[in-house]
Amino acid sequence: MDAPVGIVSLPFDWSKTPQDDWNMPSNAKAAQVSEQKLQLTQFSPLFVVTIRGSAYVLKVHHGQGLKRYFDSPDSEVDRHVCERTAYERLQSHEISKGGRIPRFYGTMDHFDLDQYQPHLSGFPQDEYPPKGILLEYTPNMRQLHWSNYTKERLQGFIQGLKELHRAKVLHDDR
Predict the structure, then answer these.
(1) Could you list the mean pLDDT of each consecutive 10-residue stretch along the chain, which spans 174 residues?
(2) Which residue, 31, 35, 36, is CA-closest to 51?
(3) Coil, helix or strand at residue 148
(4) What is the reported pTM?
(5) Domains of the chain
């Protein structure tokens, strides 16, 4: 990743910090956010944030309201809830300790959009406020692609999927 374009300090209100060994103190409410996104997607931009000198990834989801009458009562439709639940299950099975998936550190369920501009400039028109997930940051991580695939990586990928399924997590990127 290139050096950040700029850094700004912003307040964070962490709703959940499940990492027992992380123990975010109650006074650690501020983070520095890079103005450069790691990934540009319409669904969930990724930002590098620095908390107490350590880098993390903040994945931001568009907010969603309650289920609508036509949503299935048997499945969750809120992307943030689905992803948070998946990371919680993976963590409870200690899968993130193997290094195949990023460690999950917590969620942020309340953003004051006025304080997060221009970072969250794509969110103000949303009816519901965005939510975030704090993850482990791995420098120079790349998405799997046929050009960087080997038989060993394929075996690791298959083993990783088996671990996901044992934790009752279905991988379904959209």
Answers:
(1) 40 48 45 58 75 82 78 78 85 75 81 68 73 84 75 84 83 58
(2) 31
(3) helix
(4) 0.70
(5) 9-143 (3.30.200)
